[in-house]
Amino acid sequence: MMDTFVMRHLPALLIAVPLFAAFLMPLVGSLGPKVRSAWVFLGALATAAVGLALAGKVLATGTVLYVFGAAIPQQTLPPDAAFPIRIMFQVDALSALMVVIASLSSLGIAIYSLAAESKQSGLETFYAMLFLLIAGVLGMVATGDLFNFFVFLEISSLAGAALVAYRVDDGVAVEAGLKYALLSTVGALAVLTAIGILFAQYNALNLASLANRLQFTALDQVALVLLVVPLAMKCGAVPMHFWTPDTYATAPSSVTAFLVVSSQASLYGLFRILFTLYGHLVQFSWATFGWFLIVLGVLSMFVGVTMAIPQKDVKRLMAYHAVSQTGYMLLGVGVGLAVLGDADALAQYGKTAMAGGLFHVINHAMYKGLLFLTAGAVFYRAGTRNLNKLGGLGHDMPWTMVFFMIGALAIAGVPPFNGFASKLLIYESVFRFSPFLSIVAMLVSILTLASFVKVFHAMFLGPRRAEFAAVREVPAPMLAGMALLAVFVVVAGLAPQPFVDHLIVPAVDAVIDRAGYVAAILGGR
Amino acid sequence: MDFFQTLQTGAGAWNPLLWLLALAVALGVALAIRSRGRKDFREGDGRKPFISGNEEPENAGGHVPASNLYWGFLESLKGYYARLVPLHTGVPTDYVVWLLGVMALMLVVALVV
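Above: the input entities. Below: the structure tokens describing the complete assembly.
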């Protein structure tokens, strides 16, 4: 009975559980640190369980619909209405992929933060904001409504800005939080304007309903630009990436690791707008917007990695690598979009390029999250992020060093880790579209490896240093959080095909199948 | 064994199990070569790790700081970095200008193309 109820209302629970955990946090926190820690762990575990159960249901049975407030949650159209009027979630395979990413990452990060943030004050606020951020991200990737997407985007942006500025005793944290809030607000304003333009013309906010009515007027084109450019900025694409190193470097590492997932939720929004909302229109130029993604991708890859190499702050260096890795995703999916109108090219390499791009989304969330957590572990013990001052930590932090090696080899695309599998899909498929782009992608991987060799040497190699004599391995919860992500990195690298078959290919099909997305809501109408 | 399926890329394939096998063979060869080395070697019996003609630095001072790595790479791309780094001003309004600039450019492209 309970099982049936839970399974029936999984989409609602997906945001209800983290919101419940967030809103009760001040009350629970007043009962003491142990109760608070237990609440955080249970909240993250329940969120992950709901997310994974929902993703499993979607991948097993197809798109899951949920209409809030309806007597029958699966009834998308009221009996006498021609279009959907209620708030609804539409979780297809692409959304399921993003839900899996957010679920796994949030669990690992929450466990890690139990020890990493234990010495800080104001933890009730910290964890309340963290769960709000998680709820915002999950809502962004699950909703089937454009205005709701904006609402969840705002929730994640505001919670993210508050978390970035969390260590207020450090002045730059406030500055970084302000930058993140400012850029997010300007971007959200553009998104809201675009939604207003579409609503004024078509009297609809539901994505499927809008996709069915869009005429590609001049105003629709303005709305398209107002939607895709801010979302590209939010995912850290060059030349709108400037906020990324400032924000990622300053935020607590557990927050930075989830900001990566938050950026990827914006990437999801970008793909949803381009493929589902506009991608089917005959007037829409696939090549133009495909190349828009490709150019952003190549710029992000190259500028990101070359800016990373001279950095001295380990988290700032990793932030530039996050920009660089986003470029691979944009490149892979951009190639798929560019050939969307060419059935042969799409079948021969376009879908593989998209699979590589989407596989890289989940892989990047795991290894980049892992790398930020290892940087946080080093900062936790050594008290500095300056690579010139670090050294010899491998003697006393062997587990952190091993986790760092796993993450570093994965991001550099070294087999047998997960980054190699997704990059191989991108290299080989993009080569058939443009050999030059593929060569750039490979060159960037070599530079990435060089950069992480430097970080590995600077942090862990060399003799023990006197100033780090008291350094020892980080507490078990931090190791457990890192281990969770590291296990995924290794398993997805050793067995990539099952992930591609059961998680990535359905997501690619969902992105391309705009008609299926619309029909799920509107049926024959 | 289904778990270790070959990854199909459309143009090629990669099998992680075969790669691990190749890695194990390479490791075996490396160990075989190592086993043919001198058995009587003992660490710290007066041999120097390298011959430089100079006095060896103390162990604790032997760590090369991160900034000293890839000096040649950065020097050869000095012109590139001289243009790229100053763009990262740290000023939030500059960041907004970049966002609005890309938006304006894309608007022109979308309306013209």
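Note for the figure: Residues 343-382 of chain A form the longest helix (40 residues).
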